[in-house]
Fold these 2 entries.
Entry 1:
Amino acid sequence: EKGGYEHFMLKEIFEQSKSVLDTMRGRLLVDEGVIKMAGIWDHLERLTNAERIIIIACGTSWHAGLIGEYLIEEFARVPVEVEYASEFRYRNPIITSKDVVIAISQSGETADTMAAIKLAKEKGAFVYGICNVVDSSIARVTDAGSYTHAGPEIGVASTKAFTAQLTILSLIAIKLGNHNGNLGKADFMRLITELDAIPKKIEEVLNSVDSVVKDIASKFVNATNFLYLGRGYNFPTALEGALKLKEISYIHAEGYPAAEMKHGPIALIDENMPIVIIAPKIGHYDKIVSNVQEIKARKGKVIAIINKGDTQVASMADHIIEIPETSECFSPILASIPLQLLAYYIAVERGANVDQPRNLAKSVTVE
Ligand code: F6R
């Protein structure tokens, strides 16, 4: 059932070109120039007229939500807030019937997310679910929703569910922007064509980086700390990379927006600190270049995720992992794959139980 892989996690990492394609199947129709999603189509007005969209989730799903905020605000220009379900439910949040809540949950059973949904519904908000497990509690309690269709995720560390969530959020953001006129026809076509190419690019990443990442991992098995840095859309990718490492290898790791480095974490940097920096040639690339210079001036060990052919960051980094180019908004899907593999290989070399890390459960049904 592990399909020849040593662990479910590795199998699920390698399934991602297929699972992302499954998420898009029947929904992203490039030739017809449309995005077809029943859950969204049935409630287009409700969604595009929302005064505010509030995304609630926990853990990895919350990281997907942060990227969802960037996507929806950029393409649909609807204000978005992202909250941990556990905070939202207990802080008496301001929420009205003009708000739309998007709840994201792989398992569809997370207790805090469930309680946050109930609260939002009581206050009259329209609640849209993004779940992976079909017919799960959250899928049933929400007003509408979309399944991610990533297939069963057995490894406790979420991998393919995360990239599927990013795919759904991309589809929703582009669809809403197309509908409310914030996204012109040409941009819409460019984005859906780019998104359509993602499964092939995931395959390219999986084929080209596996042995590179495994080799890098072997050099950091005894590290006690890691920093993960990224900017823009890849700030949440950095958070997710750090979470993957923490939960399965038990190495302390923190994710930060790269520019926040000088507000504190830079004090941690010395020759013993590995820093994973997500640096594709997009967005604020020149800023990332100066972040890498600042790290190298303090002798930090840089593991950089860059685009193929990049030389500027490559010439300064201690280790490089190359991924294909794509639009900034889709780059977290590609960049998170080497981060999953890095956490996986480090954990395996440390002898950790990667599929069932200590103290963790696949569905957190208690708060
Ligand atoms: C991380 C992980 C957890 C879950 C979190 C939410 O790899 O698996 O952080 O993401 O418990 O779970 P769901 O998405 O099922 O609500």
Entry 2:
Amino acid sequence: MAFETILVERHERVGLIRLNRPKVLNALNSDLIGELNVVLDAFEADADIGCIVITGSDKAFAAGADITEMHALTYPESYDNDFITSWERLSRVRKPVIAAVAGFALGGGCELAMMCDFILAADTAKFGQPEIKLGVMPGAGGTQRLTRFVGKSKAMEMCLSGRLMGAAEAERAGLVSRVVPAADLVSEALAVAKTIADMSPTVAMQTKESVNRSYETTLAEGIRFERRVFQAMFALEHQKEGMRAFMEKRPPNFRR
Ligand code: HXC
């Protein structure tokens, strides 16, 4: 598949998507979101893909929604076409998705990264929700996901002032899983993605669904959901293989 705004690679069982509008720091326009969604659909349907990585360039993961495309939008157009809803395909992917962020992840770029299951950051990463400087507020989850990840005080300061947060602060605040040297970002992301892709795909998806459930429900209901899914895992051949392999002192083979 050939695309205009993204580059797509396969590394064994890992699908790598590079956002690729270098002249505009990967500003997210409707073409890019459309192409991203096509590839997400394809990877989701492909049994040979066990994990997905989304990254940008050294300078920018994405500097936000494309302001030149968005600036003349009217309210009826925005409402009637349900502007931004198409971006949410990423948050509905069932397979694990990692954001590998170097440089700017601003506005919709930060929101896109937060739709992934975790964010691996280069030491050059800068996160922010600067929409307020453009006379709008975040519209793809920034006021909601950022608040859950870093807490009200920091999210409120970032959304109200537009202040950017560097990689070290993002790690301290819990926005990113860890920080790696910029030169190693993609290889580190591919390595952890390969580790995940070698697990049981069923169990990886169920684990993702269970962790995500903690954001949607009470603790008691979340624990109940986890328990039922855990119990059902004893119906999986992969549970038998994983535990048998441990006892036989050999690596498990979840590819059968
Ligand atoms: C369109 C953009 C862009 C964007 C950068 N560019 N961000 N074009 N939309 N979001 C373009 C610039 O116009 C410029 O084009 C080129 O990319 C390089 O950017 P520079 O500004 O020259 O680079 P630099 O000086 O390094 O500054 C980098 C920057 C700055 C700090 C990231 O570009 C910036 O502030 N960008 C806007 C960030 C932002 O406000 N994001 C939120 C968007 S609103 P030319 O042609 O001049 O070379 C949003 C809403 C989300 O995301 C709501 C739901 C999705």
